[in-house]
Amino acid sequence: MAKKSVPKPGVEKSDSNSLLTDFDIHLFRTGKHFKLYEKLGAHAVTFSGTAGTYFAVWAPNARAVSVIGNFNIWKDGQDKLNPRWDESGIWEGFFPHIKTGEAYKYAIHSNTGEYLEKADPFALYCEQAPKTASIVWEPKYDWKDAAWLTERKSQVGKPKPYSVYEVHFGSWRRKIDENRSLTYPEMAQELVAYVKDLGFTHIEFLPLMEHPFYGSWGYQLTGYFAPTSRYGSPEDFMYLVDSFHAAGIGVIMDWVPSHFPGDAHGLYNFDGTNLYEHADPRKGFHPDWKSYIYNYGRNEVRSFLISNAVFWLDRFHIDGLRVDAVASMLYLDYSRKAGEWIPNQYGGNENIEAITFLKEMNEVVYSQFPDVVTIAEESTSWTGVSKPTYLGGLGFGQKWMMGWMHDTLHYFQLEPVHRKYHQNEITFSIMYAFTENFMLPLSHDEVVHGKGSLLGRMQGDEWRKFANLRLMFGYMFMHPGTKLLFMGGEFGQSAEWNHEKSLDWHLLDYGYHSGVSKLIKDLNQFYKTEPALYHFAFDQRGFQWIDYADRENSVIAFQRESDQKEDMLIVVCNFTPETRGHYRVGVPYRGQWKEVFNSDDLKYNGSGAMNHGLLTTSPVKYHGRDYSLSLTLPPLAISVLKLEKEVTEFELETS
Q1: Known catalytic residue: 566?
Q2: Any catalytic annotation for residue 539?
Q3: Residues 39 and 101 reside in one and the same domain
Q4: What is the domain extent for residue 605?
Q5: What's 634's domain CATH number?
Q6: Mean predicted lDDT score pLDDT of the chain
Q7: How far apart are CA 372 and CA 148, in angstroms?
Q8: Which of 377, 436, 522, 561 is catalytic?
Q9: Domain assignment present for 433
Q10: Could you give the CA distance from residue 560 to residue 568 in angstroms, rounded to a whole number?
């Protein structure tokens, strides 16, 4: 039987003006409260017929807590919160004179003697940076996406394409004359139409939670439950999500449970002690980002983080969470030298508390929202990242395929004459492609910090650079796994991404760049309408090599398949600038085949080396198959074939 809480001496037990029940406190203290945003923070409520604002904040090591704002001239001690009697460490209070829209902070006197002014970790709205106060707010929005949510639920467990357009909100497109980013409502007009036209199934935003430093791209956040006010109100962001859903596009948000910044108004040293972070810097300080690491072993911290994940799916109808820097959470020695980390209780480098947290987070998310997806950015060979927790995995829905990204980009940086010596780099990913549910990312991380743009990393003169880029994109879409492309890549942005500037939209006026844009649009359409490309996206049954060993010609060929024979696609990639005539490829069925995609098409500003008309098989055994085709392989291009009409032995005999 659970031990009953006894009121502290001098602390009166009174829940008459509280949103918190004894059961809430029990769940919170055991790490099992996953909707804390309904209880903690600031809430407009009515108690005993009196309207006002209820505040609740966790600060167990505080000596005194009060709410400060314009309503009391930011005077400490005037609007005091009271500690709850149950030793939960929560301070609460109800104030009729504090209204919606008021800016506020918590004034905290620590039992260590410090005086701190902290923003509300559960604030639903924040002042616009560089201001740092929270705002009393109750978002009200009339959602119109019921049909979308119903359809999303009906698709659970069914094969479906995921083609994701990754966006940094502040720099996608800017109002040049006003030197500002677009707002949420403006993006609902411009970005939604753009993504729909290109045919992506999902949009993914770099973190849009409130963050004080714009240059962190959102990864150093302080407002965990508030969309950044840089671009509008919470209702404005809801409208943006609703607009994407109306256009048939899912919304994925980057989520950052791996670290947080040390800003004075943030979580660090929240009540004068290491409340959210580990006290020992060997576990609590991140050397790469100069930020602080959550104490995943503390029950209340786990409740906070999992509630935050649930919040975005619940209140903002988000369709998926891409979890940042998972590798940094899994390993105690991540980016640390010997002596700078503490082994776990078994002497290993695994962060058992973080592992337990990630598993529970995924279990909670999928139990409440089985129709969303969680995606791990995990760069190591950790086993079972996207396997169910009941099978020993971490429970994510998908995992970024970082190895494919590194190998592919390195391969395309090679001069074609040298590629025959590196054939394994472009084929190796298939060796492990089905060990996880992989997403193929060409993300923001690949076009910053001196790496240059994707186009800038391609080899050769201008024509060859664009041909290589088209080939790489074609290879990505035909490769097993889901897809992600960072903004600008879809039209061959020339310059490295700069978060202070808009994308170079004028480039679409030039043929090569507009050709890449047309290619991406066609690839998305092709991907969504060809079941062979997504039916077995994470399953060996969806892929067969035809030939991976033609190193001399730098050519590879493979099959993509669904559970229907007529869906089969034959994919041939020529990684050299030589047009190869009469190139023989083995195929499994006799009959007539048709080229259904070619990245060298003139409409993409290619050279136009096509396989026109219907291609008839020859009874020449090749690549271990009974029939073969003689093809023209376009230079630095990918060609995709599909069976137009199969000819059976009976038809041959009776013809």
Answers
A1: no
A2: no
A3: yes
A4: 542-654
A5: 2.60.40.1180
A6: 95
A7: 12
A8: 377
A9: yes
A10: 6
